[in-house]
Write a structure and sequence with these properties.
Blueprint lengths: L10 H11 L4 E7 L2 E6 H17 L7 E5 L4 H12 L3 E4 L6 H10 L4 E4 L2 H13 L5 E4 L9 E3 H11 L2 H9 L5 E6 L9 E5 H16 L6 E4 L6 H14 L2 E4 L6 H8 L3 E4 L1 H16 L3 H22 L6 H18 L6 E4 L6 H8 L5 E3 L11 E2 L12 E2 L4 E4 L4 E5 L6 E2 L3 H7 L6 E9 L5 E6 L4 E2 L5 E2 L1 H8 L5 E7 L6 E7 L4 H8 L6 H5 L2 H15 L8 E6 L19 H7 L1 H12 L1
Parallel strand pairs: 1-11, 3-4, 3-5, 5-6, 6-7, 10-11, 12-13, 13-14, 25-26
Antiparallel strand pairs: 1-2, 8-9, 9-19, 15-16, 17-18, 18-20, 20-21, 22-23, 24-25
């Protein structure tokens, strides 16, 4: 229950306030064969507290974990807030996680109860339970199981209804702002994942004071939840931001359903990691290429006006009438086909995005506003606003958050968004947060005269050649990935005498690339060993090298026969590159780059 006359201090207090203020309005939406169905805010609140009472009945103790192994769906959100209400700590497990990764999280958070959305997740959690007997109960959201200790979602809610809210009220009253509210396990580009402890205060500050007030979001807002909910960015967007604004979240179970959902829902704001924006760009470019000549000329004119208007806005000037006409007559139709015609705010974060992709969406009247943060900073350190941005930079510090650069360029942050520590790892916590409260991000950046931050690289990912030259891979990789047909580029050369690269080709672009260079290749495997495609890439890389210092120029490369993916292990669930995994997996190809040169 919210403390009388006060601002909510815990997540559960905020839920009760929002449920009162927006009781009959839609909160959760999901797709069925008959269309989108919704649950109101009052219904959302009741389901959360019923599930929370069910967790208490199942023996969930304050401070222990409730693991959620499920795709994006309303039950994910309900289980998360229910665990918080019960005084426990919800922890998402990525749907792509292996049994071993699931076991690590379940054991590390001391989870007595876990949520599985279907048979695949259930099978993994049953295998985990064989090794972690503390896991007493698995709640299965869809379907039934006669396995011991497996309950249906319906049965969990029934247990909660039978128990009532009596014991739950005591747990709610005992919660404080500095208590841990949720655990985010870092994606782990290197080493073992760490459990990032985020408090009620962290979550309420970031979603409430920062995002809600700055964007002036209201309860008529609608958004999509499609990125992994085990990640802090998606939890902010799908759980904690709507909790402040009373907005409605439409759950999309997989990336494959995204475009369909975009067109149906027409979200009022949209967030995507760079790879999502790149895929949307590729789809639009394909459609634009097929446009009749007259329409193509009209589109080209409109896009030029939009780019000019974007540049003007960054200088504080208003757009001219030419852009207004181009936007209404031409570009609005393109945005409508994307499902982004109502999106007043489009953002990108989690990984570097290329200037080519930024410019492309600017030319459609959709500025991509970059945000920067980590799990340890509740997902946000700097933000860009529709009225205050610089293309290619990730914004300025959030109001109330301090940021500075260390002598070596590392970005440091301090404020109410900084996490409490790593679960059961005080040594790692001391390494991350210094005695003055500054969190060391491990990212390297620069700040311009107006205070806008640019990320130049990861501190620990700098390559140092055998000649002592330091090379930041990310900016060069972004340039390489702008070459037609290139999917991913990974620079190599640490402790070597020159810089090389591993390249993957984009399966969707193979035929276009082959047609461009006169190749007969039709598959990734054929393209990876085609002399014509290699010659084309050689020429394009030479052009990239023209803008680079000699010591950072790419002097040799290998084309891999398959794309990087989450299942094959080269990408995290949020599509970040696992650099160390790539280095280890393709050690032979890397060695071949240098042995061929030496030979």
């Amino acid at each position: 229950m919210t403390r009388a006359g006060s601002v909510p201090l815990t997540v559960s207090e905020q839920l009760e306030r929002t449920a009162r203020e927006h009781a009959a309005e839609p909160a959760l939406a999901w797709r069925t064969p008959a269309g989108w169905e919704t649950t109101s805010w009052a219904g959302y609140r009741d389901l959360v507290f019923r599930a929370a009472a069910g967790f208490v009945r199942l023996g969930v103790e304050p401070g222990t974990g409730v693991a959620i192994h499920a795709a994006n769906r309303p039950e994910w959100a309900i289980a998360d807030f229910a665990a918080i209400a019960a005084g426990a700590v919800p922890t998402g497990i990525f749907v792509t996680s292996s049994v071993e990764q699931c076991r690590y999280v379940v054991d590390h958070v001391e989870s007595r109860v876990a949520i599985a959305d279907g048979p695949e997740a259930l099978a993994k959690l049953l295998a985990v339970r064989a090794e972690v007997p503390r896991l007493a109960t698995i709640v299965l959201v869809e379907g039934e199981s006669d396995a011991p200790g497996v309950l249906s979602w319906r049965r969990l809610l029934a247990l909660g209804a039978e128990a009532g809210e009596g014991e739950l009220r005591g747990r709610l009253a005992a919660q404080r702002p500095q208590d841990v509210a949720t655990l985010i396990y870092t994606s782990g580009t290197t080493g073992t994942a760490k459990g990032v402890e985020l408090t009620h205060a962290n979550l309420l500050f970031t979603a409430g004071r920062a995002v809600l007030l700055a964007h002036r979001l209201g309860h008529r807002e609608r958004q999509l939840s499609y990125l992994p909910l085990a990640h802090i960015a998606e939890q902010n967007l799908a759980l904690h931001l709507p909790l402040q604004s009373g907005a409605c979240v439409h759950f999309v179970p997989s990336l494959e359903k995204l475009h369909e959902a975009l067109v149906e829902v027409r979200p009022t704001h949209f967030f995507g990691v760079p790879r999502v924006w790149e895929k949307l760009q590729a789809a639009v470019e394909q459609a634009l290429a097929a446009a009749p000549p007259l329409r193509a000329q009209l589109l080209a004119w409109a896009r030029r006006r939009a780019l000019a208007a974007g540049e003007a806005r960054q200088r504080g000037h208003l757009a001219d009438l030419g852009f207004t006409l181009a936007d209404r007559v031409v570009l609005a139709k393109v945005r409508a086909r994307l499902g982004l015609d109502r999106a007043g705010f489009c953002a990108s974060a989690a990984a570097p995005i290329s200037r080519a992709t930024l410019d492309f969406f600017f030319s459609l009247g959709l500025p991509l506003l970059e945000v920067y943060g980590l799990s340890e900073t509740t997902g946000v350190i700097t933000v860009s606003w529709p009225h205050d941005y610089r293309i290619g930079r990730v914004g300025r510090p959030l109001d109330g958050v301090e940021m500075r650069l260390a002598e070596d360029g590392e970005i440091l942050a301090r404020g109410p968004n900084v996490f409490r520590g790593y679960r059961r790892d005080p040594a790692a916590t001391r390494d991350a947060i210094d005695a003055d409260g500054w969190f060391h991000t491990g990212d390297v950046g620069t700040v311009d005269a107006d205070g806008f931050l640019a990320i130049t690289d990861r501190k620990k990912e700098l390559l140092v050649t055998s000649g002592g030259k330091k090379v930041a891979p990310a900016p060069i990789e972004k340039r390489l990935q702008q070459i037609l047909g290139v999917g991913h580029a990974v620079l190599v050369g640490d402790r070597r005498h020159f810089v090389g690269a591993l390249l993957t080709l984009d399966a969707a672009a193979v035929l276009t690339l082959a047609g461009r260079v006169g190749s007969a290749a039709r598959t990734l495997a054929e393209a990876s060993c085609c002399p014509r495609i290699r010659a084309f890439l050689d020429r394009e890389i030479a052009r990239v090298n023209e803008a680079l210092a000699r010591f950072e120029s790419v002097r040799a490369f290998r084309i891999l026969a398959a794309e990087f993916s989450i299942p094959s292990g080269e990408l995290t669930p949020t599509l970040k590159l696992k650099r160390r995994v790539v280095y280890e997996k393709f050690a032979g190809e890397i060695e071949a780059i240098y042995s061929a040169a030496d030979g």
